[in-house]
Amino acid sequence: MYVEFSNNGKYIVAGIYGEVRVWKTGTNKYRDYSLDRVNVTPNFVCFSPDDNYIATGIYGAIRVWKLNSNDFTDYKVKYENTTPTYFSFSPDGKSIAAGVYGAVRVWNLKSGKFIDYPGKYKNDTPKFVKFSPDSLFIVAGQYGEVTTWKLNE
């Protein structure tokens, strides 16, 4: 099970059976965020840089919840039968990115619009993606190679 502290250290997030659970650090108090699928345990969960959102991969999308709310948005990947295993919020908090079949997809969190940055290998999904500290570039690895893209606004 993957666990992570919020950036301010006030919360801990983890994927549990059918849900994402957020604990208040140092207490047994928690809140669950449902995946709408009881037979799935999230492999990866994370906080946004401002700690206002949590995210996990679900079938066909990245689900992003507003912390302490039932509000969420699903950012769709290319195929419904794939679950993003890793994704990254941009340090400026404006975007989220994940590997999708043959590309890296970067979504604008407010509008939901996305841009695909094609990978060298069209039949492979980049597993790990990461933004540069200034949120201007994204990097991904495929088949032992590293590719960097300058992001379009």
Distance between the termini: 35 Å
| Morphology | globular
Q: Record the strand order, biggest sheet.
A: 1-2-3-4
H/E order of the elements? EEEEEEEEEEEEEEE
Low-confidence stretches: none
* Helicity range: under 10%
Distinct helical segment count: 0
Give a count of the beta strands, DSSP E runs of length 2 or more: 15
Specify Rg, calculated over alpha carbons.
15 Å
Mean pLDDT: 91
Beta fraction: over 45%
| Largest sheet, strands/sense/barrel | 4 strands, antiparallel
Q: Find the structural class using helix and strand composition.
A: mainly beta
Describe the structure.
- This protein is mostly beta strands.
- It is globular.
- A hairpin with a 2-residue loop joins strand 10 and strand 11 (103-108).
- A 4-stranded antiparallel beta sheet has the order 1-2-3-4, with no helix packed on it. The chain has a 4-stranded antiparallel beta sheet with strand order 5-6-7-8, with no helix packed on it.
- The termini are far apart.
- It has no helices and 15 strands.
- The relative contact order is 0.12.
- It has strands at 3-5, 11-16, 19-24, 30-34, 45-47, 53-58, 61-66, 72-76, 87-89, 95-100, 103-108, 114-118, 129-131, 137-142, 145-150.
